[in-house]
Design brief:
The protein has helices at 6-10, 59-72, 77-84, 87-90, and strands at residues 12-15, 20-22, 25-27, 36-38, 43-45, 48-53, 106-113, 119-133, 149-155, 158-163. By secondary structure, it is an alpha+beta fold.
């Protein structure tokens, strides 16, 4: 669930729960004759990746593409302004009140379901923003209907796991 991407979340088919790592700090010790690893002080989060089916008119793909282009390399001020004025981007905030830099980020949730499709765990991501969007491969060789799939990768500040 990413409020700024309602069309993407409806067609979502996969997501990962990113890993977390911390590099140990090496403390030199002269008494024992060897270095001693101790816990580090920086936690690193892996990237969040989602996969989604692309709709016929590429609306969900264009949603993500517009966000990436607006925060990364808009062709002009108008492209950013048009994107930031979209209702799904503002998430209910008045455009005059919303900080322009806060529009770069969104909060996201990954809801994990039980074997009976009941929500049991929520993973909340803070300050999510897209860092990549895959390309689309078209082919005339398909013998059956094959739906286009794309993937998007996001960076974020931190995530929290809680049981529902």
């Amino acid at each position: 669930l990413i409020k700024q991407l309602p069309k993407v979340q409806f067609f979502n088919v996969s997501a990962n729960l990113p890993g977390v790592s911390m590099s140990p700090t090496i403390q030199p010790a002269t008494v024992l004759g060897r270095d001693i690893p101790i816990h580090g002080d920086k936690v690193a989060f892996e990237e969040l990746t989602i996969g989604f089916m692309v709709d016929e008119y590429l609306e969900n793909y264009r949603e993500l593409h517009a966000w990436l282009m607006a925060i990364g390399f808009p062709s002009d001020k108008g492209q950013y302004i048009n994107w930031s004025n979209e209702e799904s981007v503002r998430v209910g905030e008045h455009p005059a009140i919303a900080s322009r830099s806060s529009l770069f980020y969104a909060d996201a949730s990954l809801i994990i379901l039980s074997n009976k499709n009941n929500p049991i765990v929520e993973v909340s991501f803070a300050d999510v923003f897209p860092i990549s969007l895959s390309g689309l491969d078209y082919s005339q060789n398909a013998t059956d209907v094959e739906y286009l799939e794309a993937s998007a990768t996001f960076a974020y500040q931190v995530y929290d796991i809680k049981r529902l």
